[in-house]
Each structure stands twice: as structure tokens, then as C-alpha cells.
Design goal:
The chain has 255 residues and is α/β, with parallel strands linked by helices. The protein has 6 helices and 9 strands; from the N terminus they run E-H-E-H-E-H-E-H-E-E-E-E-H-E-H. Helix 3 (101-117) packs across helix 4 (134-143). The longest helix has 29 residues, at 222-250.
């Protein structure tokens, strides 16, 4: 069986809303209900300069929730405070991984309070930079009703550490033949070419996009752990090769 999901990251009060609206319009046209990574109290300096401050930010989030978009808790402030790579070892920057349990509890508690104040009900946790640890999960269990983690690189959803995990494997659309795949886009930095490819892909494959309620979860096994490590190291090697090629291309000829 083949299934697709899509996730948009970094919704915050200083977004360039035009970049986001093109995604919302596309999804609504085909009845797709994406996962939206909502930042409760953004402090990321890169995101603070994307657009003008939106005083109706939480009203927008409520409107998305009313359309049955899936709201995800995207950390607390999206501010990286160390270089810990966490459980998945995919990046070397984190808001959560390696941070003391009590500090993580305070972050999750404050995030949950903001969502509650704004009448928003997140059902998914999305760690900034894919970096978090067991303490993050303990904090979620204590202060939220969230049971789903949007992360990992397996080909199908699974159960691990008492949570349902929905893997997020691809940064752009790619035709597949089996399994469950999540496409992860960042509207603020998504180039026109990538969006156009997404639009064409959804036009042809919109019937294969599902909601979280359609998913089945299997237990995480040793074989899953080995395969996921392989996927992570393969991705890291690819990213390193791309950076090396980019560096070499910038070196003037003859040097």
C-alpha cells in the first residue's frame, strides 16, 4: 500500500504569509490536510526577519485547525542552544537534546500553556532540527496529550517509547510505489521550482494523500533500528558530499 503525507515547518508570527498561502490554497483545492509545525514562542533570529509581525497569528492557527489541518507543537521557541544530535543523530543543533529534564519540562509546559490559552489542540510533536531525546518524551507525557512524534526515517509508522512515530523521510516530492512517505517543506525557503513540482505531483497523486487517522503502526524492532541507522548515515553522507561539491565549485580555476 502507498500513502503520502505532507508537513510544513516553522509557522510563526513573522512568516512571509504569501509563501504560506500558496501551499494552503493548493492543499484546499485537493482536500489535503497537512501537518503544520507551529512554533509557540519563536526566538529563531532567521525566522524573525522573514516578514512583518502578524498580530492575527493565533487566529490563523485556529483557522487552520478548523479546516482539520493537523497542528503540531514545533518545540517551544525554536532557538538552538547546543550541538547535541539527540536520539536520531541527524543534525548537530538542538533546542531539546541534551538539555536537563527539568528545563525540557519547563519548555514543554510553557508551550502547552500557550496552545491551551489560544484554544489550539496539537496532536503531534515536531522537534526543531529533528533533535530531541528521551527526556523530551518524558516531558511530553507529563504536560501534554500528544501521542504522535513526526520524525524518523523508516518507511512506515511505528511505535517506540510509548509514542506513535510518523517518519519524515523526504524534503521534496518523489514518486514511490509502496509504504508511507512524508514530504517535509519549509515555505519560507521553498524555491518556486520545488513548489511547481509539488503542485504537479499533487494534481496527479492527490488521491494517495491520507490523514493520520488512516495510519497503522507496528512495533519498532531491532531490524528497524539497524535500517534506520543505515538511512541516517546514508543521508549524512549525501549531505556531506553535496557540501563538498558546492565548496569545490566555488574554488577559482587554476588554484
Amino acid at each position: 500500500m502507498l500513502q503520502y503525507l505532507i508537513r510544513l515547518d516553522d509557522l510563526c508570527p513573522t512568516n512571509n504569509l504569501q509563501k504560506w498561502e500558496r501551499f494552503f490554497t493548493l492543499f484546499d483545492r485537493y482536500g489535503i490536510k497537512p501537518i503544520i509545525a507551529v512554533i509557540p514562542a519563536n526566538r529563531d533570529p532567521k525566522l524573525q526577519v522573514c516578514g512583518s509581525f502578524n498580530p492575527y497569528y493565533w487566529q490563523l492557527v485556529r483557522e487552520l485547525q478548523n479546516k482539520n489541518y493537523v497542528i503540531g507543537m514545533h518545540g517551544f521557541d525554536h532557538y538552538y542552544i547546543n550541538q547535541n544530535s539527540g536520539l536520531l543523530k541527524m543534525n548537530n543543533r538542538s533546542e531539546f537534546a541534551g538539555v536537563p529534564l527539568q528545563t525540557q519540562k519547563e519548555k514543554i509546559r510553557k508551550a502547552a500553556e500557550i496552545f491551551k490559552r489560544e484554544n489550539i489542540h496539537p496532536s503531534v510533536f515536531i522537534a526543531p532540527a529533528h533533535t530531541f531525546d528521551r527526556n523530551t518524551l518524558l516531558a511530553l507525557q507529563e504536560y501534554t496529550n500528544i501521542k504522535i512524534i513526526s520524525d524518523g526515517l523508516l518507511r512506515s509508522p511505528y511505535v517506540r517509547f510509548g509514542f506513535n512515530w510518523v517518519p519524515v523521510q523526504l524534503s521534496e516530492v518523489e514518486q514511490k510505489t509502496r509504504y508511507t512517505w512524508t514530504f517535509n517543506y519549509h515555505p519560507e525557503t521553498c524555491p518556486a521550482k520545488a513548489f511547481n513540482e509539488l503542485e504537479i505531483f499533487i494534481e496527479k497523486n492527490h488521491h494517495l494523500f491520507v490523514s493520520l487517522d488512516n495510519l497503522d503502526f507496528s512495533n519498532y524492532t531491532l531490524a528497524n533500528a539497524i535500517f534506520e541507522k543505515y538511512c541516517i548515515y546514508k543521508r549524512l553522507a549525501r549531505d556531506y558530499a553535496q557540501k563538498l561539491i558546492s565548496f569545490m565549485e566555488r574554488i577559482p580555476a587554476g588554484n
